[in-house]
TrEMBL record:
SUPFAM superfamilies: Phosphoglucomutase, C-terminal domain (SSF55957), Phosphoglucomutase, first 3 domains (SSF53738). This is phosphoglucomutase (alpha-D-glucose-1,6-bisphosphate-dependent). It comes from Ferirhizobium litorale. It catalyses: alpha-D-glucose 1-phosphate = alpha-D-glucose 6-phosphate. Its EC number is 5.4.2.2. It is an enzyme of class 5 (isomerase). Residues 1-21 are annotated as: Disordered. One of its GO terms (cellular component) is cytosol. The lineage of its organism: Bacteria, Pseudomonadati, Pseudomonadota, Alphaproteobacteria, Hyphomicrobiales. Its cofactor is Mg(2+). One of its GO terms (biological process) is carbohydrate metabolic process. Signal peptide: none annotated. Belongs to the phosphohexose mutase family.
Length: 542
């Protein structure tokens, strides 16, 4: 029943910030997915007879690769596979299932916020037994293996029916098709005061959630409408579609513009939120008030003790390096640890496992906690709702009070998408060459205090991750960060992160881009962005 199939390696299966992401036609090349999955298994030890969790965000090609992964897991010696009904599991739900059932690991099929469809993006990611993305040691091993692989193993069996919940045994291996929502919803009920949120909604507090035709639809329907009592229709675009309705399932001000406009309108609901393709990101908008992800992290951390799951306080906060320093001020006030990691959730795993950090976040709309080992979009939405229910104030009141207490970190990210790869690499290399001579120089009145290429020393396993972004810090606490995306699938994406701290309350009402105008101009000058990329303006501003 088990076939060993000869194959030829590909040289481009290098996992990025979050797994291997490529266009669907690339994944459809002969044995492309099989090679990568076998390379994962070849890089792991000790899984014989153990459980593997498999699920994806439902995008185009999801079902095909789920079948391949099941058959290959069976052939490679796993004892059991748990797969979400219809091949669906949001990224945070997959993380929870791995942890709850003490699985050996999991395979998550997703390209997250990237578009889906026959010519769009697909992705495969491996998560370890703690429920989190595999650390670099493992992803490096997978890549090395993928370059020399000569054969893969697959069970020669019929496709598994993914649409009926229940277990079946094939060749000694159990395949359990599970409800993708149930375990996750139960976990949320443990962490948050659903009764308080339900009362708030009963009093007429209006919530709108845009699932962006992606994986969170069924989760949000069950939790926000069924369990919290929001009126039917509060969850929009709740049917997961293989092409996300032709949109980018990216919850930012560009792709969730309709929600944004509704929240800024005259008769706006009280609370608006959205999530991404695989359910790990969140967008939070109050009536007339957009909350930046960096501020959201800080505010959630400062108020987390209002939710039952965090009532005993936080051990520490972790954020990715490009994320604003707003959370740092909260950690300082609470007298707890603050950790600065490279971009990507895999770097938070050790801090969470060791109990050093409780809440983590990234500027890219990712927030989460030690309840799973991935960022979690709905979790952030529910923590916000729990805080709103307890405080009885509006989102904008809470944000303004936070700025008054801690100061405001004006923050923006400028993305230059689809840039020529060589030009982008040259831009970063040129910045690297300038690092030594930048300190002490003055640009538009801003003096460079220090500049470096961020390297992370993991305090738990002592591994070192270098070249994680060029940081230019100015006197007074402003900074500009340059890095290249590790999740894109065509050309390069240059990300420029801009931040300025403003302690003066009377200056907290400025427009963000105006407040950052000097720094934006300095970033252009030092980075030579337009000259090197040929772009006079970013493609996306968040
Ligand atoms: C981006 C974000 C990063 C996030 C990653 C995965 O990576 O910047 O913060 O962890 O996506 O998120 P990059 O390398 O493109 O900047 V997801 O929701 O795509 O799994
Ligand atoms: Co995502």
């Amino acid at each position: 029943m088990i076939k060993t199939v000869p194959t030829t390696p590909y040289q481009d299966q290098k996992p990025g910030t979050s797994g291997l992401r490529k266009k669907v036609p690339e994944f459809q090349q002969q044995n492309y997915a099989e090679n990568f999955i076998q390379s994962i298994f070849d890089s792991l030890e000790g899984f014989s007879g153990k459980t593997l969790v498999i699920g994806g965000d439902g995008r185009y090609y999801n079902r095909e690769v789920i079948q391949i992964a099941i058959k290959m897991a069976l052939a490679n010696g796993f004892g059991k596979v748990m797969v979400g009904k219809g091949g669906i599991l949001s990224t945070p739900a997959a993380s929870h299932v791995i942890r709850k059932y003490k699985a050996f690991g999991g395979i998550i099929l997703s390209a997250s916020h990237n578009p889906g469809g026959p010519t769009e993006d697909f992705g495969i990611k491996y998560n370890i037994g703690n429920g989190g993305p595999a650390p670099e040691k493992i992803t490096d091993a997978i890549f090395a293996r993928s370059k020399v692989i000569t054969e893969y193993k697959i069970a020669d069996i019929a496709d598994i029916n993914l649409d009926r919940i229940g277990s079946q045994t094939v060749d000694g291996m159990t395949i359990a098709v599970i409800d993708p929502v149930e375990d996750y919803a139960a976990l949320m009920e443990q962490l948050f005061d659903f009764g308080a949120i339900r009362s708030l909604i009963n009093l007429g507090f209006r919530v709108v959630f845009d699932a962006m035709s992606a994986v969170t639809g069924p989760y949000a329907k069950e939790i926000i409408e069924n369990r919290l009592g929001a009126p039917v229709g509060s969850v929009k675009n709740f049917m997961p579609l293989p092409d996300f309705g032709g949109h980018h399932p990216d919850p930012n001000l560009v792709h969730a513009k309709e929600l944004y406009d509704e929240m800024m309108g005259d008769d706006a609901p009280d609370f608006g939120a959205a999530s991404d393709g695989d359910g790990d990101r969140n967008l939070i908008i109050g009536k007339g008030m957009y909350v930046t992800p960096s501020d959201s992290l800080a505010i959630l951390a400062a108020n987390a003790n209002l939710a039952p799951g965090y009532s005993s306080g936080l051990a520490g906060i972790a954020r990715s390096m490009p994320t604003s320093g707003a959370a740092d001020r909260v950690a300082e006030k609470l007298g707890i640890g603050m950790y600065e990691t490279p971009t990507g959730w895999k770097f938070f795993g050790n801090l969470l496992d060791e109990g050093l950090a409780t809440i983590c976040g990234e500027e890219s709309a990712g927030t989460g906690s030690n309840h799973v080992r991935e960022k979690d979009g709905l979790w952030a939405v529910l923590l916000w709702l729990n805080i709103l229910a307890v405080r009885g104030e509006s989102v904008s009141d809470i944000v303004n009070q936070h700025w008054a207490a801690y100061g405001r970190n004006y923050y923006s990210r400028h993305d230059y998408e689809g840039v020529d790869t060589d030009a982008a690499n040259d831009l970063i290399a040129a910045l690297r060459d300038k690092l030594a001579t930048l300190p002490g120089t003055t640009h538009r009145g801003l003096t460079v205090q220090s500049a470096d290429d961020f390297a992370y020393h993991d305090p738990v396993d002592h591994s070192i991750s270098s070249h994680q972004g060029i940081r230019i810090l100015f006197e007074g606490g402003s900074r500009v960060v340059f890095r290249l995306s590790g999740t894109g699938t065509s050309g390069a994406t240059l990300r420029v992160y801009i931040e300025r701290y403003e302690p003066d309350t009377t200056r907290h009402g400025l427009d963000t881009q105006e407040a950052l105008a000097d720094l934006i101009a300095v970033a252009e000058e030092i980075g030579e962005i337009s000259g090197r990329t040929g772009r006079s303006a970013p493609s996306v501003i968040t």
